[in-house]
Amino acid sequence: MNRRRFIGAAAGLFAATSRAAKGQQPGRIYRIGLLTFDARTSPTWDAFVQRMHEHGWAEGKNFVVDRRSVEGRSETVATLAKELVTQDVDVIIAGGTEATLAAREATGTIPIVGIALGDPLGAGLVASLARPGGNVTGSSFQGTELTGKQLELIKEAFPGISRVAVLVNLTNASHAPRVKEAAIAAHKLKLQLDVVEAGQVSQLDAAFAGIVSNRDEAVLVLTDPLFDREADRIAYLAGAKRVPAIYGRRERVLNGGLMSYGASFSDLFRETADYVDKILRGAKPADLPIKQPTHFELIVNMKTAKALGLTIPQSLLLRADEVIQ
């Protein structure tokens, strides 16, 4: 190698090394803000920590997490987002559309990585999925796009049904477009769709009473922080009213739900770690495209099916990623 090539190669290596080391300056501990609606994030949070470890990060050694959880008080999300900004965090991880909107309202400069965004473009969080353009990036669980498929699965599981409810929380910015998608899918499937709203815990009992009075034969429970936090209550009500329920998260089936179809939230948290790693090393959220899930899980709980006296078609069970016996 001649001298000119050597100098050029050395300069390139130095630049690459400098970029790679940017996020792990010796002795510095980076601060990650976590804004969620529910503090119970394991095992999904464990997936994040493990992936960060694979990138060379160790919690307590070169990064710490400043946690803020709404815990059922949606009105506090804006205040908690502002608190994180005052803590001079290097990046904010926001769980869901509402938390991400609150974080962006609180800061236009601190990088924000949203997890499981229902419709980031429709919610106005990004300029485009390929090039977000601001200080927000993250992952979508394609909630709107999956709504039709979830209704198709209900119809496949129970071919004879004609009436279905969708449980929504219209304070969730991502639910309105999902309701529209559900209406389109229901029309194609020749299903009568009843939209049943519950924006507070106190409204859940009345919501399921309404499902029964409407004679709905199944219910699609949209993914939502309130519904996630009250998963045990919803599973109990669905069982008590003998209404089969389908969800967007595997964890809800573990709580006693009948079926779920959606992206793996553990995968979403691992992808979040990938983006946090890139940002701490100097990448800009504006240049990091919104990640789209590539694998969707179908989970069926046969214990719940038997308790409800339901028969799930074998063709559906054979396609399931997991069948809980």
* Arithmetic mean of pLDDT: 89
Which secondary-structure class do the elements indicate? Answer: alpha/beta
**SSE topology string:** HEHEHEHEEHEHEHEHHEHEHEHHE
Instruction: Please state roughly what percent of the residues sit in beta strands, choosing from under 5%, 5-15%, 15-25%, 25-35%, 35-45% or over 45%.
Output: 15-25%
CATH class of the largest domain equals Alpha Beta
Strand order of the largest sheet: 7-6-8-9-10-11-12
- The total count of helices amounts to 13
Q: Write down how many β-strands occur, each being a DSSP E stretch of 2 or more residues.
A: 12
- What is the CA-based Rg, rounded? 22 Å
What fold name stands as the CATH topology of the largest domain?
Answer: Rossmann fold
Overall geometry comes to elongated
What report would you give on this structure?
This protein has 13 helices and twelve strands. The protein has two domains: 27-141 and 265-287, 3-Layer(aba) Sandwich (Rossmann fold), CATH 3.40.50; 143-263 and 296-324, Response regulator (Rossmann fold). 43% of the residues are buried. It has a seven-stranded mixed beta sheet with strand order 7-6-8-9-10-11-12, with helices on both faces. The protein has helices spanning 3-21, 44-54, 77-86, 97-106, 143-157, 175-188, 204-213, 225-229, 231-240, 250-254, 265-280, 302-307, 314-319; strands at residues 30-36, 63-69, 91-95, 112-117, 136-140, 163-168, 192-197, 219-221, 245-247, 259-263, 296-301, 322-324. The protein is of the alpha/beta class.
